C-alpha cells in the first residue's frame, strides 16, 4: 500500500528514516560507490529528493544534491570520507510528513582512521513513504573536518 503525503504520520515518517539510516550505514560500511548496492538506499528516497548540506564539511560538495543520481553522488563522496558510521542515540519529533531527528553519531575517517563523535540535527520531509528533503545541521563541524584531515606531512 502506498501512502499519500496526507496519510504519513509521525511514526510513519520516523519508520521511513529508520529504514533509510540502516541502508545508508550498510552502504558506507560496504565501501560506497562501486562496491555497495545503491538500490537499497534509493528504495527509501523520493525521486525528487533534495539534500541540503552545509558548506565547509569534507563531504559537502555543491551543497545541494538532487534526485537519486545526486544522492548517489553525495553518498559516494560521503563514503570516500567515512570508513564507518554508527548511530549511538536517536531522538525524533514529528508532525505529519515532517520529522526532526537528533542523532548522536560516531564516524571513523578513512584518511586518518580517527573517530569523531558528534550530534546531527536533521529536518526531514517525507512523501509517499520516502524521504523527500533533508537538511542536516552538525553540532561541531570543525571536529568533523579535523578528524578527516591528515596531519601535515611537511616539517619546519
Rg, Cα atoms, Å: 16 Å
Percentage of residues in DSSP E strands: 35-45%
Count of DSSP helices?
4
Order of the strands making up the biggest sheet: 2-1-6-5-4-3
Per CATH, what is the topology? Nuclear Transport Factor 2, Chain: A
Instruction: Calculate the terminal CA-CA distance, rounded to whole Å.
Output: 65 Å
The residue ranges in which pLDDT falls below 50 over 5 or more consecutive positions are 1-10
Assigned CATH class: Alpha Beta
Major β-sheet annotation: 6 strands, mixed
Structural domain count: 1
Model description:
This protein has 156 residues and is of the alpha+beta class. Helix content is 30%, strand content 38%. The chain is built from 4 helices and 6 strands. It has a 6-stranded mixed beta sheet with strand order 2-1-6-5-4-3.
What's the short story on this structure?
This protein is α+β, with helices and mostly antiparallel strands and 156 residues long.
Strand and helix map with partners:
Elements: H1 10-29, H2 39-42, E1 45-52, E2 64-66, H3 67-81, E3 82-95, E4 98-109, E5 115-127, E6 130-138, H4 141-148
